[in-house]
Specification:
Length: 440
């Protein structure tokens, strides 16, 4: 059955057990006694990071196809099965991973196991459905092209990254979407949707010894396959500031800035997370649930309260490979984009030269603990965050996250800002909106 290469991670409220099936599928089980609902998450280590020029957007397109049935499931069966018991389901693609989930009544967890086991290796990829879905993904791309913020963000990443596949968006480029074939999609699926490249997270009122035989029943027969190799392209260090300006139809101007930052394997990520909290407020899980508490943060006070911007924020999210620490400003109508950028960069200089107050850090930690508690309140959120931390780094990292953040001193925040938020390490994209006839 399983290699009970099992480890237990304990920290206060949370207990998770880890298991590995003989075919390489990693399983995390979070037992919540007496929970009325259950959650089933299947997460694959494949996203836009695993693409190349010519097939950008293929991971997202494969995700769409995996709701079309295959094996024991016909088209429409996934929706019918889940809705028949009042459950919820969905999926999404990021730069690093693709995830699917079902939230079900506790006694219906096997429906989730059936869906995800069939999705893992038996998807159909009917040629007619491929062409139907091509229309959908191209339409999504065209919709994004009507959003000036999306275009500015895309231009920022295309400028900040010259080689690494983080440079393109998860939806891909339209030219690629128009020429990707059914065989391209199926080859991508067969390469990455294997047990050894997947993680199954089950959350609910199940003792591991009770639910493991069911997991084995559904997933054990799936053939073992070698985990595909990770991309080997590394982005070289940036040797000077890069600037790009775009002029597109928009009723607002935008400033987007990216500083290269390490992936989650670096200890500096904790200082960067605290820097993000001081500048913009706490979004503990930037890739998932949680609300920003940014009204008391520095960028909001410097730009929004002074009516230089309608929105001002920073963002740092966990990634497998080195990515970026980002700044984002929507300029107030009538305010010069130069003035808004000047104030933004002054705030960066302030945090580099003057450490935040003890009160700022204490407030950030209090907000982090509150959001941590919020994340643990709900089967879907728990399964998601547990799974994503395991996929990006390890579940144990989540277990010690608050403890690591509490170690960050005011001086460390400034040290991290001075190390990474440099002019040489900076890419700036300015989007100057071309107003329509009723704009100013």
């Amino acid at each position: 059955m399983t290699k009970l290469a099992q480890s237990i991670s304990l920290f206060k409220e949370l207990q998770v057990s880890r298991h590995v099936l003989d075919n390489g599928l990693k399983v995390l089980i979070r037992e919540i006694p007496n929970a009325p609902v259950s959650g089933c998450w299947a997460i694959y280590r494949v996203g836009s990071r695993n693409e190349r020029p010519g097939v950008t957007g293929i991971s997202h397109w494969v995700e769409h196809m995996l709701f079309k049935g295959g094996g024991k499931l016909h088209k429409g069966d996934i929706g019918r099965i889940v809705s028949s018991v009042g459950g919820e389901y969905n999926g999404f693609t990021s730069k690093d991973f693709t995830a699917y989930f079902e939230v079900l009544p506790a006694d219906q967890i096997e429906k989730g196991l059936l869906i995800e086991s069939e999705r893992m290796m038996n998807a159909a990829f009917d040629p007619r459905e491929v062409e139907s879905e091509r229309t959908v993904v191209v339409s999504e791309r065209e919709g994004n092209e009507n959003d000036p913020e999306f275009l500015a963000s895309e231009e920022l990443f295309l400028s900040a990254f010259r080689f690494h596949p983080y440079r393109w968006s998860e939806g891909g480029l339209k030219a690629d979407l128009l020429k990707i074939t059914r065989d391209d999609l199926f080859e991508h699926y067969r390469r990455y949707y294997v047990p050894g490249n997947a993680l199954l997270v089950v959350v609910g009122p199940f003792a591991p010894k009770k639910i493991l035989p069911k997991i084995q029943e559904y997933f054990g027969p799936l053939a073992k396959s070698n985990r595909p190799s990770d991309p080997t392209i590394a982005e070289p260090p940036q040797s000077g500031e890069r600037r790009v300006e775009v002029r597109i139809p928009s009723e607002a101007d935008y400033i987007k800035v990216a500083y290269h930052a390490p992936g989650f394997g670096s200890e500096d990520v904790y200082g960067l997370m605290m820097l993000d909290a001081i500048l913009s407020g706490v979004r503990l899980f930037a890739f998932g649930p949680g609300q920003s508490s940014g009204r008391s943060a520095r960028l909001h006070k410097a730009l929004v309260e002074r009516k230089l911007a309608t929105e001002a924020s920073s963002e740092f999210w966990p990634t497998i490979d080195p990515s970026v620490f980002a700044l984002d400003v929507t300029v107030w109508e009538g305010v010069s984009i130069d003035r808004a950028e000047k104030v933004l960069m002054e705030e960066v200089e302030k945090i580099q030269k003057t450490p935040p107050s003890k009160h700022e850090l204490e407030r950030a930690i209090a907000q982090i603990k509150a959001q941590y508690a919020y994340t643990l309140d709900g089967v879907a959120r728990q399964g998601f965050v547990i799974g994503i931390f395991e996929m990006i780094t390890s579940f144990e990292t989540m277990a010690r996250l608050v403890e690591e953040l509490e170690k960050i001193s005011p001086a460390k925040v400034s040290e991290i800002a001075a190390k990474y938020l440099t002019v040489q390490n900076r890419t700036v994209c300015r989007c100057v909106g071309v107003r329509n006839s009723h704009g100013s």
